[in-house]
């Protein structure tokens, strides 16, 4: 039995993920195997890059997280392309769950590295729908500075940017390291609160300008100390 308690390296887990993904991406026409008249069926990808459509494991709890159950039931009630896309989305979720189950003993940095390696590969859904990865990098005065930070628009609405999932398959760590605090000159750190000036669009550590996440909620338009002083002189 494959157990999460077994020590595994990031490379071993990624190899397992990659093999299972390859199996699913290269399945032959399994449409005919997913007869809605049959019992609950699952699509499995195996570490040896083979695949199968089969009934779920009988043992409880199973050795590994199980794929989506009953993919065959919706087959005839949906457009074929839509059905394949749905199976692909569920397959992506399953692949991630297996990888992080096997990586239960990884530390924070190892989990981050594992996700980064996984994220460099197109998802099954993107392969099935023939979507191409977005290669354009955000500019320094827009999205590239705002990961894990908060900025307000003129209407007072908070705009926040998630710092994990990104549409680009480029490694953005170097790109974000170029963002410097306008006060202390320190490098961008996703673990710290940052706030952007709506006037000059520079970014600051919240602690450097004495702004907390809670306080930022009440600010409709943030002006950094430099911009506030300039406006005062006019």
List the helices and strands and how they pair.
Blueprint: H1 10-25, E1 42-45, E2 51-54, H2 80-102, H3 108-119, H4 124-128, E3 150-152, E4 158-160, H5 173-177, E5 194-196, E6 203-205, H6 213-216, H7 225-233
Antiparallel strand pairs: 1-2, 3-4, 5-6
Helix pairs in contact: 1-2, 1-3
Characterize the structure shown.
The chain has 234 residues and is of the alpha+beta class. The chain folds into two domains: 10-129, no CATH class; 180-227, Herpes Virus-1, CATH 3.30.40.10. The protein is 32% helix and 9% strand. It has helices at residues 10-25, 80-102, 108-119, 124-128, 173-177, 213-216, 225-233; strands at 42-45, 51-54, 150-152, 158-160, 194-196, 203-205. It has a two-stranded antiparallel sheet. Strands 3-4 form a two-stranded antiparallel ribbon. Helix 1 (10-25) packs antiparallel against helix 2 (80-102) and helix 1 (10-25) packs parallel to helix 3 (108-119). The relative contact order is 0.10. Mean pLDDT is 79; it is low at 1-5 and 136-173. Keywords: Chromatin regulator, Metal-binding, Nucleus, Transcription, Transcription regulation, Zinc, Zinc-finger. One of its GO terms (cellular component) is nucleus. GO terms for molecular function: histone binding; transcription cis-regulatory region binding; transcription coregulator activity; zinc ion binding. It holds the Pfam family Alfin. Belongs to the Alfin family.
């Amino acid at each position: 039995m494959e157990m999460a308690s077994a020590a595994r390296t990031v490379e071993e887990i990624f190899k397992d993920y990659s093999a299972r993904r390859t199996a699913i991406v290269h399945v032959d026409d399994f449409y005919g195997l997913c007869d809605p008249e049959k019992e609950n069926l699952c699509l499995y990808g195996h570490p040896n890059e083979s695949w199968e459509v089969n009934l779920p494991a009988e043992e409880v709890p199973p050795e590994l997280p199980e794929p989506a159950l009953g993919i065959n039931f919706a087959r005839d009630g949906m457009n074929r392309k839509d059905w394949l896309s749905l199976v692909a989305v569920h397959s992506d979720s399953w692949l991630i769950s297996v990888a992080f189950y096997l990586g239960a003993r990884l530390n924070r940095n190892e989990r981050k590295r594992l996700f980064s390696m996984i994220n460099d590969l197109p998802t099954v859904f993107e392969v099935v729908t023939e979507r191409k990865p977005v290669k354009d990098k955000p500019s320094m005065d827009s999205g590239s500075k705002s990961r894990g930070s908060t900025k307000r628009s003129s209407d007072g609405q908070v705009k926040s940017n998630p710092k994990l999932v990104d549409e680009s398959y480029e490694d953005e760590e170097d790109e974000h390291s170029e963002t410097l605090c306008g006060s202390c000159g320190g490098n961008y750190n996703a673990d710290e609160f940052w706030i952007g000036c709506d006037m000059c669009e520079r970014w600051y550590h919240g602690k450097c300008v004495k702004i907390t996440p809670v306080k930022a909620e009440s600010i409709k338009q943030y002006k950094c100390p430099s911009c506030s002083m300039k406006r005062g002189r006019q």
